[in-house]
Amino acid sequence: MKLKQLEGLLGDLEQFSNPKVELEQYPTGPHIASRMLFTAENSYGDITDKVVADFGCGCGTLSAAAALLDAAYVTGFDIDPESLETATLNAEELEVEIDFVQCDITKLELKGLIVDTVVMNPPFGTRKKGADMEFLSAAMKVASKAVYSLHKTSTREHIKRAALRDFNAKSAEVLCELRYDLPKLYKFHKRKEVDIAVDLWRFEPRQS
C-alpha cells in the first residue's frame, strides 16, 4: 500500500466526539499516523506479518494503520470505553480485524501474549506528569522487536536517558521530527490550533 493511499483511508476515520482532558485525548491525525506506521514497515519490517499492540489506542487510528499494512494480529488497548466503541466502528468501516481491550496500560499484565511491535501516541504528560514515561515503561516490557512512540521534542534528552537507563532499551533513536496539529478541543485552549513539535521514536528492547 502506498503512503498516500494509507493516509487517505485513515483520514476517513471517526475521532473523539467527547474528548476527556484528564486522559489527554487528542486525535492522531492521518498525516502523522500514516508516516509513523509506513516508516515502521518500510524501513524496519516491523508491521507486516507481525503481532502489533497499540497502547492508548483512542479511536484506533494507529491500530487501523497497522491492520491496513497487513499486520498478522492487532490489539488496541485503552482505558476509555467510549473511545473503544468508536475504534470498533472504525475497524468495521475499514473491514479490518482488530481486537480492542479496555484496561489501564500502567497496570497491564500480558502473560503469555507475544507482541513484536508496540505503536503508540501516549499522553504528553502535561496534565498528569510522567504519564508519557509510564506508557513507555509498559511498552518496553511488552515489545520483543520495537516500540514506536511520539513524544514532545522538548523532552528529547529526558526520553533518551530514561529509555536507555531505566527501561532496558538497547537503542533509542529519533527517526524524524513532525509537526503535531492540536485542534482546539478543550475550553482552556486559547487558539484555534496549536502546532507542537514531536519526535517519532524507535526504541529497541534488549533481549532478555
TrEMBL record:
Residues 44-139 form the Methyltransferase small domain. InterPro entries: DNA_methylase_N6_adenine_CS, rRNA_MeTrfase/Polyamine_Synth, Small_mtfrase_dom. It comes from the Eukaryota. It holds the Pfam family MTS. GO terms for molecular function: nucleic acid binding; rRNA (adenine-N6-)-methyltransferase activity. Residues 84-111 form a coiled coil. Keywords: Coiled coil, Methyltransferase, Transferase. Belongs to the methyltransferase superfamily. PrmA family. This is Methyltransferase-like protein 5. It comes from Arabidopsis thaliana x Arabidopsis arenosa.
